[in-house]
Design goal:
The complex is a heterodimer of chains A (493) and B (328). With 493 residues, chain A is of the alpha/beta class. In chain A, 33% of the residues lie in helices and 25% in strands. Chain A has 17 helices and 20 strands. In chain A, the strands form four sheets. Chain A has a six-stranded mixed β-sheet, sandwiched between helices. A six-stranded mixed β-sheet of chain A has the order 16-17-18-13-19-20, with helices on both faces. A four-stranded antiparallel β-sheet of chain A has the order 2-1-4-5, with helices on one face. In chain A, helix 4 crosses helix 5 and helix 12 packs across helix 13. The longest helix of chain A has 16 residues. In chain A, 48% of the residues are buried. Chain B has 328 residues and is mainly α. Chain B has one domain: Orthogonal Bundle (ABC transporter involved in vitamin B12 uptake, BtuC), CATH 1.10.3470. Helix content of chain B is 71%, strand content 0%. Chain B has 16 helices and no strands. Chain B is globular, with a radius of gyration of 20 Å. Chain B starts with a helix and ends in a 17-residue tail after the last helix. The model of chain B has no long low-confidence stretch (mean pLDDT 85). The chains are: A alpha/beta (493), B mainly alpha (328). Chains A and B meet through helix 2 of A and helix 8 and helix 9 of B. The structure holds adenosine-5'-triphosphate (ATP) and magnesium ion (MG). Adenosine-5'-triphosphate binds next to strand 2, helix 1 and helix 14 of chain A.
């Protein structure tokens, strides 16, 4: 609980060091956060932003350094002490209780006393939801929510805790541009009330829109600070050392039909999928746009054979796929990359090498040397910041994504990617797409979902707009723009 | 069978279930926190022995009961010590302890075999015990039986209706998130392991001071701990369902005795072991109920859905995996 709601708190980090064994994640970072301001922390993947914030939130002990709150030195070991001080944090990867309901998740950590007051809590929860225009079903288990919705829940919870210092680690990765707008309004209002806000992001546009000042991190050090008005070029140089070069457009004519969906319906997500008829051709890059859970996830899982349609027909390379399982889809070269990295894609607790060993080993013997070499090669090729022996959960978010991409087969026929660049910084995003474009030479079709309109417009040939479980638009990228697309996503097509 | 006989039978089921019920509720509490105490079976025996020994020496059943609870807590404390603090496997430590405590019980209890000692006497609850049928079944017992009954409701309310219970479920689901929300996962786990241990100790006392008074070898309490562990799963980690399982098991046992009388041609052992395969069957049903295909099929059939819902408990996600705080 916040010690004194409405109190203005200044937080100073002085010469913070954090070392994970030989790896230096933070090397002498000093930043001053003032009340009433929205302070951005900008930096490329693996710069050490999350580490610094976890130190501030008491989740990770620092190696060295000083934290000063309102001018007095403060030592703490646990998030409990920190939340009593009035500091709350939204973690980058959801830290919640998947089996428990939304409302229970909301309550944990903020209810004391003898009896759970569900009614009152639910009222507060619903009014907060309404305020931010989030729609979260209180009784649903959190594991049925999308990653974005889980972040929304955390944001609401933190607001309800009444923290004076709010740390948001990448709060915009999982929400739509509309929800982003409402969230930003809410954050601005909170800053006006005198709260100290820290927004961690690798997205320049978010920082530029919202923040009053920004500190840029690179390789564990502060490489620069800037106040409004920001200069994009300078910020990019601080982030990456140089301005990344833009993506080279790659236009190729679409080939033969690869995937046919005829009037397909299925359950799942919130809205399911209804009466979807779509043709995907070879060499095409197709974006699935839409609000969280409007049917994109179901579409991708249907196309991967992970879900069975309740009605309609799916054909792959002309062959009807009714009654076939996902192995049959895989044999036809369909590859699916889900969004929740640590839950569906990677195995927590195993190291990078062990992941390669899993992929490569047949028979009884694990070929550790091969796996290690392969891991090392891929780490270099995909420029992953990590060592073969590191467990995957200790990689930074962006590097986990790079690792997942490095597992993709050489020549798939259809690549299904769920938010492939979620959490990736600009340089990495460009790098990933350049990498993905190479697949087109092998006739691969790429279907991806994304909540970033800029990304969609930059890389896709064709866009399918999902709304409430249906495809309401099927349009060539050249024939639309940000504004038009934004309206379509909101259902105003 | 006459009505009176039925009432007697059910009354026997209610009182006979008490030890298993207490042990099951205790283990449910412990496992809800994500901690596994496998030492149940031996602990029940040891605490039964200690309860009788202390009660015999002091001629005071209450003291015996308290000593048993202490023994339960102590054994749980040993599991906690080795697993939470010394980083050993909970399963291994619990398993070794279950064997150790069992031998210890028979070794220390030797001088006390087949003696007559104090026990808890029947205390019919005024007015309630006069209700026809229900009165004799539920309200004509000793206080441990009542305590067991009350504890079902208490556990349920505690786990699902109080903030403390919510934190308990939270730590069992994700100690990491629990830590991030300001709790101390290790502390919560040892607290509930000890609380569960106290109940397991009480289960032992319920044997030697009520259900099967006295001490002997073999004691009737053997196997109780294992059944309790199975019942926790049967109950889907839900105290009320686990309690229902305890009564079901008790019913099967009592029926076994009756059937033996009715159908003497079937060997007695069949009825003695029948409850065990029945338990395995329920475990199968539970596993089946969780399949999505089954749930899709049940969507259209109401009775099937409610049936499946009853069995669809899931284990706390972090069960048996202690959380290590990030080291400096
Ligand atoms: N628990 C850990 N053990 C070992 N190394 C870690 C651990 N957590 C983070 N690291 C390393 O510390 C560095 C900084 O990681 P951090 O998560 O802070 O990056 P970030 O700036 O948040 O990046 P992103 O934008 O991808 O989220 C990375 O190289 C990462 O691999
Ligand atoms: Mg991060």
């Amino acid at each position: 609980m916040a010690s004194d709601p409405g109190a203005r708190m200044a937080v100073e980090l002085i010469d913070i060091h954090k070392e994970y064994g030989p790896l230096k994640a933070n090397q002498g970072i000093s930043i001053c956060f003032a009340p009433g301001y929205i302070h951005g922390i900008l930096g490329e993947n693996g710069a050490g932003k999350s580490t610094l914030m976890k130190v501030l939130a008491g989740f990770t002990p620092k190696t060295r350094g000083l934290i000063r709150i309102d001018g007095s030195n403060t030592e703490y070991q646990t998030p409990a002490e920190v939340s009593r001080l009035g500091i709350g944090m939204l973690y980058q990867e959801p830290v919640d209780f998947p089996v428990l309901s939304v409302l229970e998740n909301f309550m944990i950590g903020q209810t004391r006393g003898f009896w759970l007051n569900r009614m009152a809590t639910q009222k507060r929860f619903e009014s907060l939801c309404l305020h931010l225009e989030f729609s979260l079903p209180p009784e649903t288990p959190v594991q049925k929510l999308t990653t974005g919705e889980r972040q929304q829940l955390e944001i609401i919870r933190l607001l309800s805790l009444g923290a004076n210092v709010l740390i948001l680690d990448e709060p915009t990765t999982g929400i739509s541009s509309f929800q982003k707008e409402t969230l930003f309004q809410a954050l601005k209002a909170l800053a006006k009330e005198g709260k100290t806000l820290i927004l961690v992001s690798h997205k320049l546009e978010d920082i530029e829109r919202l923040c009053d000042r920004v500190s840029v991190l690179r390789k564990g050090r502060v490489t620069g600070e800037m106040e409004r008005p920001f200069d994009t070029e300078t910020l990019l140089k601080m982030m990456f050392g140089s301005v990344p070069s833009p993506l080279k457009p790659s236009q190729t004519a679409a080939g033969a039909p690869l995937l046919n969906m005829e009037n397909v319906s299925a359950t799942g997500d919130r809205a399911g999928l209804r009466g979807c008829s779509v043709v995907i051709r070879e060499k095409e890059v197709v974006a699935l746009a839409g609000l969280e859970g409007s049917g994109q996830g179901v579409f991708l899982r249907l196309a991967a054979g992970l879900k069975v349609p309740t009605s309609g027909a799916i054909r792959l390379q002309g062959e009807p796929m009714a009654g076939k399982d996902c192995i049959a889809y895989q044999n036809k070269g369909v590859t699916f990359l889900p969004t929740s990295r640590l839950e569906e894609g990677l195995i927590t607790g195993l190291t990078i090498s062990e992941h390669f060993a899993l992929k490569a080993s047949h028979g009884f013997r694990v070929r550790w040397n091969d796996a290690e070499q392969q891991a090392q090669a891929r780490i270099e090729q995909f420029r992953i910041k990590g060592k073969p022996g590191m467990p995957v959960e200790s990689l930074s978010g962006g590097n986990q994504q790079r690792l997942l991409l490095s597992f993709l087969p050489d020549a798939p026929s259809l690549l299904l990617l769920e938010k492939p660049t979620r959490g990736l910084d600009l340089e990495s995003t460009l790098w990933v797409w350049e990498h993905l474009y190479h697949y087109r030479e092998k006739k691969t079709a790429i279907v991806f979902s994304s909540s970033e309109l800029e990304e969609i417009l930059m890389v896709a040939d064709r866009i399918l707009v999902f709304f409430n479980g249906g495809v309401i638009r099927d349009i060539k990228t050249a024939q639309t723009d940000v504004h038009d697309l934004g309206r379509a996503i909101a259902g105003k097509a | 069978m006459s009505g009176l006989e039925w009432i007697l039978l059910l009354s026997g089921v209610v009182s006979g279930a008490t030890p298993i019920l207490l042990a099951t509720l205790g283990e449910t509490l412990t496992e809800k926190a994500g901690f596994v105490n496998l030492s149940l079976d031996g602990t029940v025996l040891l605490s039964a022995m200690v309860a009788f020994m202390v009660a015999f020496e002091t001629q005071n059943a209450i003291l015996g009961f308290l000593a048993a609870c202490l023994v339960g807590a102590l054994v749980a404390a040993v599991v906690v010590l080795f697993s939470l603090w010394l980083g050993q496997s909970q399963v291994a430590v619990g398993f070794v302890l279950t064997l150790t405590t069992r031998d210890l019980a028979y070794f220390l209890g030797n001088p006390y075999t087949r003696l007559h000692g104090p026990q808890f006497s029947t205390f019919p609850i005024p007015f309630l015990s006069d209700i026809p049928v229900l009165g004799p079944i539920f309200f004509h017992h000793n206080w441990m039986v009542y305590a067991g009954l009350a504890l079902i409701g208490f556990c349920w309310a505690y786990i699902y209706r109080t903030p403390m219970g919510l934190r308990l479920r939270a730590v069992g689901e994700s100690p990491k998130a629990s830590f991030a929300r300001g709790d101390n996962p290790a502390k919560l786990q040892w607290v509930y392991a000890l609380a569960g241990g106290v109940l397991v100790g009480a289960a032992g006392a319920a044997f030697s001071l009520c259900v099967k008074p006295g001490w002997g070898r073999p004691q009737g309490a053997e196997g109780t701990g294992w059944i309790a562990l199975a019942l926790v799963i049967f109950g889907g980690w839900h105290p009320v369902r686990a309690a229902a399982g305890a009564y079901l098991f008790s019913l099967l046992q009592v029926l076994g005795i009756y059937f033996q009388g009715w159908i003497p041609s079937v060997p007695a052992q069949v009825f003695q072991v029948a409850p065990f395969p029945l338990m395995i069957l329920t475990l199968l049903i539970i596993a089946y109920a969780r399949k999505t295909a089954t749930q899709e099929a049940a969507r259209r059939r109401l009775w099937m859905k409610s049936f499946l819902d009853f069995f669809s408990g899931t284990a706390p996600s972090a069960l048996g995996k202690p959380y290590r705080l990030e080291s400096f």
